[in-house]
Amino acid sequence: MLNIALPKGRLGDTAYACMARAGYECPALLEPNRKLTFENPALGVRYFWVKPSDVPIYVERGAADAGIAGKDILLEYAPDVYELLDLGIGKCRMCVAGPAEFRDDAAKTLRVATKFPHIARAYYSARSREIGVIRLGGSIEIAPLLGLSDVIVDIVETGRTLKENGLAVLEPVADISARFIANTASYQFKHAEIRTMCERLENLS
Fold it and tell me: In angstroms, what CA-CA distances link 41 with 44, 56, 73, 190?
């Protein structure tokens, strides 16, 4: 039995659809209920829903053999897992955004509001730019508008929210999409099963 961690929400629905198309369907998962674990013994899979940012934790610690996680989560937390496949779903971009007229003053510490402090620090460190990170958990587009930060580092899908708040993409940071990941020990001891699953998913594209 392979234990698979799926992210709750829209990405999880798309991820499960990929798994089903690859031959790993589990009809009970689609039933309206509050269950968190679902299995199909005939196909040797057990799924469970978790918070998107928790998927790599379950996989890294072996509670799940494999899972589907956004590249943003992998970049931010750098878990010790194998990233086996870019599924090409949940595509978006990690960007620096701020007022369109913003001009960076290198003489000052750049104030950056973000939900992704590690990504922000790594990005600006590679450019030898000193920053002050302001970690926020909610909608961060308001931070530059209220003078809390100069810019934000966040995920951008359509850019509509930025535009409606008078902000614009200033710099691209990274392309983001969902990745199929595996636990390092499981990849050794359940190698054939995980490789078969990975190959079936790869053949969908």
Answer: 5, 24, 30, 16
Strands (DSSP E) along the chain, which ranges? 2-7, 37-40, 45-50, 66-70, 82-86, 92-99, 110-114, 131-135, 151-156, 167-176, 178-182
Residue 76 in tokens: 């931010």
Q: pLDDT tens digit string along 1-56?
A: 999 999 998 899 999 999 999 999 998 888 887 788 999 999 999 999 999 999 99
Q: What are phi and psi of 165, to 5 degrees?
A: -110, 15
d(CA 69, CA 6): 8
Please calculate the CA angle 129-132-135 and round it to the nearest 5 degrees. Answer: 130
**H helix runs in the chain, sequence order:** 10-21, 55-60, 71-77, 117-125, 142-145, 160-164, 184-189, 191-202
Q: pTM of this prediction?
A: 0.91
